[in-house]
Specification:
Distance between the termini: 37 Å
Structural class: alpha/beta
CATH topology of the largest domain: Aspartate Aminotransferase, domain 2
CATH superfamily of the largest domain: Type I PLP-dependent aspartate aminotransferase-like (Major domain)
CATH architecture of the largest domain: 3-Layer(aba) Sandwich
Radius of gyration: 22 Å
Helix content: 25-40%
Number of helices: 17
Number of domains: 2
Largest sheet: 7 strands, mixed
Oligomer: single chain
Strand order of the largest sheet: 4-10-9-8-7-5-6
Number of strands: 15
Length: 457
């Protein structure tokens, strides 16, 4: 990393009077300004705060920085595009980078997901997907199909429709009532099965019960099922291999669109370009974002099947176009960044690297079991979670008031490692360019952090 960052005055940046005008995501600002973290720069897999302290980015910012910080190819692509065209009129025209990007995406998505709507954020993508599903059914002779089935512990975004599909109470209860027509089922949490069953003897009951909900609600009323291939807020919930083929089959039989929310899992994170490849299941609509531009410019989108797209193809007088749009959808600068990221992923085989480094990270995390507090390690590629328990044999959890996982995550951050953490687990999702040496540093820090927390109990 270059010489310490000196452009800004740290005293000014850390002054509570400066910070009190700011609202961070999901943070209590009164607490934050007592010990603020202000990131000044980044390079590779490392952040640096305004004091020059280095922090290993074990989370890709927030599951975003796939190709690493300071990537020159992406930066130069953005700069070149800014010199040419920064904004095109979305109601009247498109632009060369956007055309090239949607064609490239159509090439890398599974199956016949050949039509792409470009957007600028994950919540926009999941909202668009659910709106697309409802309009699709209206235009194909099924106007009563409007309900959306999602999963408890799932998170699909902060806007009202996405929030209605979300099944995490901490994110949504203060905004209720949310929109009508959203239903929830239990996720495939095999380690702590909500149905008190054991895999594989359960015959993947958690997937089959979705069909029962569809039948009880009435298939003529259900438009879509939306799921994260790997659930983040539930603790990197990773389904058994049969789960998605079962879901695909029951959606087909009941004319229900299957939506994959791949905002987190897309663009190499699970070891394949999309988790749809990892789990050998093609959805009808695939939502993408985050790693799509590696965080350099806001960029997201949805890709959908030829069957779905055909319902929106016609003349102006047919009035069947998708009635949806966002100001920055298809922005040329964002599209240029997305193209550069795809070049990096392909030419550096970052999908393969995610598989290789993910396997190495998993093997190193196994050493945490020696501390006697690891219940399960789960995930795919470079998206891995560790659940902490008081007793690995009985799976008994720590008292929730202790917030063991939160303590580990906060201690790790003080020790120089950024992770994702909740009361009972921590998660790792570093940039796909991470090396074995950097993984060693990451695991060493979290190991020492767990020890520090245990000493305090």
């Amino acid at each position: 990393m270059p010489e310490p960052f000196t452009q800004w005055n740290p005293a000014r940046l850390l002054d509570p009077e400066s910070l009190r005008h700011l609202v961070l995501d999901l943070r209590q600002m009164q607490t934050f300004i007592e010990d603020p973290l202000v990131i000044a720069r980044a390079d590779g897999v490392w952040y640096e705060d305004v004091h020059g302290r280095r922090i290993l980015d074990g989370l890709s910012g927030i599951f975003v920085v796939t190709v690493g910080h300071g990537n020159r190819r992406v930066i130069e692509a953005i700069k070149a595009q800014l010199d040419t065209l920064a904004f095109a009129p979305p109601l009247h025209a498109t632009n060369p980078p956007a055309i090239e990007l949607v064609n490239r995406i159509a090439d890398i998505t599974p199956g016949d997901l050949n039509t792409v709507k470009l957007l600028s954020g994950g919540s926009e993508a999941t909202e668009a997907a659910m709106k697309l599903a409802r309009q699709y059914h209206k235009q194909t002779g099924n106007p009563t199909k409007y309900k959306v089935i999602a999963r408890y512990h799932g998170y699909h975004g902060a806007t009202m429709g996405a929030l209605s599909a979300t099944g995490t109470k901490r994110r949504k209860t203060m905004f209720e009532p949310t929109l009508p027509g959203f239903l929830h089922v239990y996720p495939p949490t095999c380690y702590r099965c909500p149905y008190e069953k054991t895999y594989p003897d359960c015959d993947v009951f958690c997937a089959r019960t979705i069909e029962e909900m569809i039948e009880l609600e009435g298939p003529e009323t259900v438009a879509a099922v939306i799921v994260e291939p790997i659930g983040n807020t539930g603790g990197i919930v990773t389904p058994p291999p049969e789960y998605f083929p079962i879901l695909r089959d029951l959606c087909d039989r009941h004319n229900v669109l299957l939506i994959f929310d791949e905002i987190i899992t897309g663009f190499g994170r699970t070891g394949q370009m999309f988790a749809a490849h990892t789990f050998n299941t093609t959805p009808d609509i695939l939502c993408m974002g985050k790693g799509m531009s590696s965080g350099y410019v806001p960029l997201a989108g949805i890709a959908f099947s030829d069957r779905v797209a055909s319902a929106f193809w016609g003349r102006d007088e047919d009035a069947v176009e998708f009635s949806h749009g966002h100001t920055y959808g298809g922005n040329p600068v964002a599209a240029a960044a997305g193209l550069a990221c795809l070049d990096e992923i392909r030419e550096r085989d970052l999908c393969g690297r995610a598989r290789e480094m993910g396997a190495y990270l998993w093997s190193r995390l196994e050493s945490l079991r020696d501390l006697g507090v690891v219940g399960e390690i789960r995930g795919k590629g470079l998206l891995i979670g560790v659940e902490f328990v008081k007793d690995p044999v009985t799976k008994a959890q720590f008292d929730p008031a202790i917030k063991f996982g939160v303590q580990v995550g906060k201690t790790a951050l003080r020790n120089g490692l950024l992770t994702r953490f909740d009361p009972h687990w921590v998660a790792f999702a570093p940039p796909l360019i991470i090396t074995k040496d950097e993984i060693d540093i990451m695991v060493d820090i979290v190991t020492e952090s767990v020890k520090e927390v245990l000493v305090k109990l």
